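Chain A, query sequence.
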Amino acid sequence: MSEYRLLLIEDNPADAELVEDLLDDCAERGYVVERAGRLREALGLLEERPFDIALLDLGLPDSQGLDTLRLLVESAGGIPVVVMTGHQDRGTGTGAIRLGAQDFLPKEELHPALLARALHYAMERYRSQREVRLMATAFDSAQAIVVTDPQGRILRANHAFTRITGYAEDEVLGKNPRVLQSGRQDLEFYHRLWTELLENDHWEGEIWNRRRDGSVYPQWESISAVRNEAGQLEYFVAVFHDISEQKRLEAELEHEATTDRLTGLYNRQRFDAELDRALARTERYASEAGAILFDIDHFKRLNDTHGHDIGDRVLVELSRRVAHSLRRADFLARWGGEEFVVLLPETDAEGARYMAERLRREIAATPFEDAGPVTISLGVTILHRDDDPDTLLKRLDNALYDAKHAGRNCTAYHHRAPGEDADAEAPPLSLLQ
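Chain A, predicted structure.
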């Protein structure tokens, strides 16, 4: 049998004894009763330990009438209260209900069944009211909440939903949430979503949706299935929030981590990742790709003669010129210092050498402001299916070394590095100048 802690606030000993006797006769439930003869005493007990319910007489030595209830509710609002009234004072009982009491009982009508029923329903109503307030607070949270029926028709949407999507609740009631779809996810994505949701009663992930004004945004969404006691599906509840700012910050951090600050080109870290992908494509699909490593001839002399500010301007302008000459699919990165590297997808050996020589001539053809003529030396190779990053970069570095050793302002091509198995159809080294 469940036991409940009841605080009996009654100054009349006879009435208090009567209530306890009636509670003893409530066979279906047990109550542990503590008495308080004054309001101050009751408030002290409520501060010391929890109670499930309070049974309150409005006429106490230190407080009278509805003020007694008001002070009790204000000081200890986390407990349901049933008021006892006398003299058939139903007007006072009605006023007590308006002030927050769960029920009122005329003393002269008390009997075990009535008292037990009143206390039980008072606790149930209080619990239900708290749950309703909790759900209302949660529903008005900063996160968007959408409730649909099992067929996916929208039944409720909160204010955060309107703020994020631009749709008022009455505009989407009865509609399917697919009205928000952006088109960025394919049918396979939604198939996987629904499969996981129906198997596990839950799905969570990133999804792109479209606002009422047509703008597309990313959101983090959690969808849960709500079932009744028989296991039948009753609702779907989706909770989501806009992660546009989070994505923007992630993009900024990614940009800072993978971009050279001076030139705005990709840095060596990003190049390493791109090279891994290019080598994987070459191995898997036997696709052709070229690579160029180049640097500025006598760059130290340029810095010593004109100053580092002019040297930095040369690096920035050279980066702009090279990027302008490359194709959209090509990948350009600053390797470090005055060295740069280019990946040329879908490019054979002849195409890679042609691109390198084109870059060499274009850089040499136009003097740089405040620095005069600038030339570059270039090492060229192609990616092989059995290459790893170290092997390829060593071959590029050797080719660049040969270009410089040959007098600079020229292009050297290595098909294979010394010691590698060379393909019969191509020579290991060729120079263009």
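DSSP finds 14 helices and 18 strands in the chain. The chain has three domains: 3-138, 144-246, 259-432.
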